[in-house]
Design goal:
The chain is an alpha+beta fold. It is built from 23 helices and 27 strands. A hairpin with a 4-residue loop joins strand 10 and strand 11. Helix 6 packs across helix 8 and helix 18 runs parallel beside helix 20. It starts with a helix and ends with a helix.
């Protein structure tokens, strides 16, 4: 225990759909601690299922904002009770589910700046929100607002060229428009609207955190080329929206926050912390020495927040991508400026070529993990998973497939190529480039449902079903969308025989393979629509909970016709966040992010295509695409 307590580290957080999780990563980039608060299990008073409330219409999906606040209270207390040594923490960072929005009531900003370390956050913030149940990325109830937004800017293609995506129901601008239209009083009482990522950062900051360009790309509000709010989009959604959102900031900028002494004074959004002069502040943060054992005289923190449907990349949610970081020091007198060089000289960091100084508290036993299949607490592998894997980007042609609460597929782009399908986001690693993303809402929760229905709730039986059925599943194909899917927009379960006749049910083993093959066929079809092609050096890096199941990954390798690698952690959002924190500490030396992750574990090969797989799945891809269009035409008419 003493040896562990002496390990300098960065903390990586994940505010995902179903839980809040934290990991500690040491200077060698090894994970040595993790803990979590699972909403359904640990905060039962909020009555969520899968971390959310699905409303009677089946389209509206929300989460209680105070549940997220209380989860942070609980996990910090768990860390303190376990003896985690915060004095060894050099920096913090985090990821959050993308698109979700939080509505701060008028006066909440003042409350944030005067939080007491002696009281729980939930108690102090319970009256600070004008909307108690916040819309999240799973919501599909804003179709009318989407059409209004597209009409305001000249159509879906025009909106995609402007913001990187056509109008999507889950995107934040459309959610804001719905709240303004249906609950104008709540909107008028709102002084600030945060994304989940900037909301989480605000809790550490004690001040409103701005939205950065990467996370702002997922709102249908940011002009991705100019990286400013689109006035046409803002006006189409709600009045005075720009003042409620605040100015979007670059992913490499320092934001001065004027009120923190020992822990979080200056918030940096993942970039060049050390190239500006920072100013100290005067009042205590909520997580101070008296509340969580922060007793050391030198305190600084770097906090990077990313949002994808975690996700997110994202949080994700995904977490996505709202990288942000904070820095602060209680060394000089309040309001006395100090230089970057003074900051780094003051306290050495164990990481080579870096210096830093957060001293912030002890460590529990690692949380139990499943050894087979997806963990019982699936996480969003969001943009921070993308960051974790940045040393593979882009030269090796790696595609990341995140298998979490939602499934996401990421591609690095030199130039934005917006289309009616998929999304283009500002790149969280390289501000000169972009990132393409495809999001599939029916991810791990759908796999868990079929596991429960067809494998007696056992991942072992689930794997045996994949092993016992042949590639191509005898021609049987399935579409499994218990909630309205994003790509494509379909809801319901649809099963087809080898003769393309729709059938009501499959045998259990066939059902399991139909689900997994269908999920990966959909990913490949829609990736190819964005220009994805399998090249000789193409690799897939799989992250998220399902990346623990080798039989699932074998199907992925077979369908895509390319080798699949993993990194030995299911908590990629947290781990990538911690890497980002180390990057924040090193940014003063203009160190590229790839330099930071050089010490990270190399991806490990876990699956290669089975001989003959390409012939089987090329034929199935054409049939799957045809049947998908058939379902779409039956539900919404022929495609445009």
């Amino acid at each position: 225990m003493a040896e562990r307590a002496a390990r300098r580290c960065c903390l990586g957080w994940d505010f995902s759909t179903q839980q809040v999780k934290v990991v500690a990563v040491d200077a060698e980039l090894s994970v040595f601690y993790e803990d979590s608060v699972h909403f359904d299990r640990d905060l039962v008073e909020f009555g969520t299922q899968g971390g959310v409330h699905v409303h009677k219409d089946g389209l509206t999906v929300t989460s209680p904002v105070l549940m997220w606040v209380q989860a942070l209270d609980v996990i910090l207390e768990k860390m303190k009770a376990s003896g985690f040594d915060f004095s060894q923490v050099l920096a913090l960072s985090g990821a959050g589910q993308q698109h979700g929005s939080v509505y701060w009531k008028t006066g909440a900003g003042q409350v944030l700046t005067s939080l007491s370390p002696d009281l729980p956050l939930r108690e102090q913030l319970q009256a600070c929100f004008s909307v108690s149940d916040c819309p999240v990325w799973m919501d599909s109830s804003t179709a009318a607002q989407c059409r209004q937004l597209e009409a305001a800017v000249g159509g879906a293609r025009a909106l995609s060229r402007l913001t990187g995506s056509r109008a999507y129901e889950r995107f934040t601008g459309n959610q804001i428009a719905k709240i303004y239209q249906q609950n104008p009083e709540a909107y008028s009482r709102t002084e600030r609207i945060s994304l989940v990522s900037s909301f989480a950062a605000s809790l550490f900051l004690g001040s409103y955190s701005p939205v950065d360009h990467s996370d702002g790309s997922g709102m249908n509000l940011l002009q991705i080329q100019d990286k400013v709010w689109s006035q046409a989009c803002l006006g189409a959604c709600a009045p005075r929206l720009e003042e409620k959102l605040g100015r979007p900031v670059p992913s490499c900028s320092v934001v001065v926050v004027p009120r923190w002494l020992p822990l979080l004074v200056c918030r940096k959004i993942c970039g060049d912390v050390m190239q500006r002069r920072l100013r100290l502040a005067t009042s205590q943060p909520p997580f101070s020495a008296s509340s969580h054992g922060l007793s050391c005289p030198l305190v600084a923190a770097c906090l990077s927040w990313s949002s994808f449907p975690s996700s997110a990349l994202g949080p994700s949610g995904i977490l996505h991508l709202c990288p942000a970081s904070l820095e602060d020091r209680g060394v000089n007198p309040p309001h006395t400026p100090f230089s970057c060089e003074e900051l780094w000289r003051a306290a050495p960091c164990p990481t080579p070529k870096r210096t830093a100084c957060l001293k912030c508290c002890p460590q529990p036993a690692p949380a139990p993990q499943s050894t087979l299949g997806e963990p019982s607490l699936p996480t969003l592998s969001s943009a921070m998973g993308f960051l974790q894997d940045a040393k593979w980007w882009p030269s090796l042609g790696t595609t990341q497939v995140s298998l979490g609460t939602s499934d996401t597929l990421f591609l690095w782009l030199q130039e934005p190529t917006p289309a009616l399908e998929g999304h283009i986001f500002c790149n969280p690693v390289d501000p000169q480039h972009y990132m393409a993303l495809l999001c599939f809402k029916n991810g791990s929760l759908m796999r868990e449902k079929i596991r429960d229905e067809s494998a007696s709730g056992s991942w072992s039986e689930f794997s045996k079903a994949l092993q016992s059925t042949e590639m191509g599943n005898g021609g049987n194909l399935g579409f499994y969308f218990d909630v309205m899917e994003i790509t494509p927009e379909i809801i319901g379960r649809h099963r087809f025989s080898a003769e393309n006749h729709e059938v009501s049910a499959f045998p259990r083993d066939v059902e399991i393979r139909a689900l997994i093959e269908g999920q990966f066929l959909a990913k490949k079809i829609h990736a190819e629509a964005l220009g994805y092609r399998v090249m000789p050096k193409t690799k897939i890096l799989a992250t998220g909970g399902a990346s623990h199941n080798r039989d699932i990954l074998q199907v992925l390798a077979d369908v895509f016709g390319t080798p699949v690698y993993i990194i030995d952690t299911a908590n990629s959002a947290c781990v990538g966040s911690a890497y980002r924190a180390f990057h924040g500490l090193a940014a003063g030396a203009d160190v590229p992010f790839a330099e930071i992750v050089k010490l990270a574990p190399n991806p490990r090969l876990v699956a290669t295509p089975t001989p003959g797989a390409s012939q089987v799945y090329e034929a199935l891809l054409q049939r799957y695409a045809m049947l998908e269009q058939r379902i779409l035409s039956q539900t919404r008419g022929p495609p445009e």
